[in-house]
Prior knowledge:
Helix content is 26%, strand content 31%. The chain is of the alpha/beta class and 182 residues long. The longest helix is centred in the N-terminal third of the chain and has 14 residues, at 50-63.
Amino acid sequence: MWSAAPNGFVVAELADLPPGRGVDLGAGEGRNALWLASRGWVMTAVDFSAVAIATGTRVAAARGIGLTWVVADVTQWEPPAPVDLVVVAYLHLPGPDLRAIASRVGGWLVDGGTLLVVGHDVENLATGAGGPRNPDTLYHDRMDFPGLTVVRNELVPRRTADGATALDRLVRAVRRPTLTSR
Ligand SMILES: C[S@@+](CC[C@H](N)C(=O)[O-])C[C@H]1O[C@@H](n2cnc3c(N)ncnc32)[C@H](O)[C@@H]1O
């Protein structure tokens, strides 16, 4: 429904990251999870739409790509083991639900693990194209990710299929190493 190709920001940010275990929250039909899995990542794609997950499953089978598909509400779901990467792309939840996930992600990642968030920014309402209109569900520059060090937090323009410009938020964060005392 969204597009078969992975999101350009996901590709630009993650192409050079060594493969490991990853989860894609609100994966939809799995364009990003499929791309990562095709590059050696052991991916789990999570979405509460059984229809989207069924489509992703069919595409993966047709392309011979292995990954795990989970039908679940991401506000309730937890990965069963620590992961190296969490991708959140165009998942627009009510503010409290998104903040609750943001506060948990640090605990899901291994030391040095990466969180990548891409989504419509609140600035898009005034000067960008398309996207959800409820400001409570949009991304902004003051998001907090406990336990993580934010290495990028930027408003990024994206060219839409019809040639307009949308304004997205891109956040890349890494889990700080856990300090141990001797
Ligand atoms: C705009 S689509 C983006 C899909 C995918 N991340 C991508 O970039 O192509 C948003 C997806 O989030 C899913 N979603 C929204 N709220 C969710 C929730 N609470 N739990 C699981 N999935 C959710 C929707 O079903 C939808 O597939």
